[in-house]
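User: Can you predict the 3D structure for this chain?
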Amino acid sequence: MEKLPDKIRTLRSVYGYSQEYLAFQLGISQAAYSKKETGQTQPSLIDLQQIVVVYGISIADLLQLSISELLQLSMANGNKKATT
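Assistant: Here is the predicted structure, written as structure tokens:
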């Protein structure tokens, strides 16, 4: 099973978002966001709530599904920016 930092890093990369963009969405610095992607710190529940809004998925989906399943779900939910 893929780890949460890998999932959020892959989603961001596939969508073409910068770390700065996601950091802005979370109201944190780019450095703080980078630590979440590398696993140095864990995202808070509030962070997770904001991350899933960006991708149009649920927290449960983010935690339970594989990266490929997350991408399919996100695209099916209308977030068409992602490309596989």
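The mean pLDDT is 90. The radius of gyration is 12 Å.
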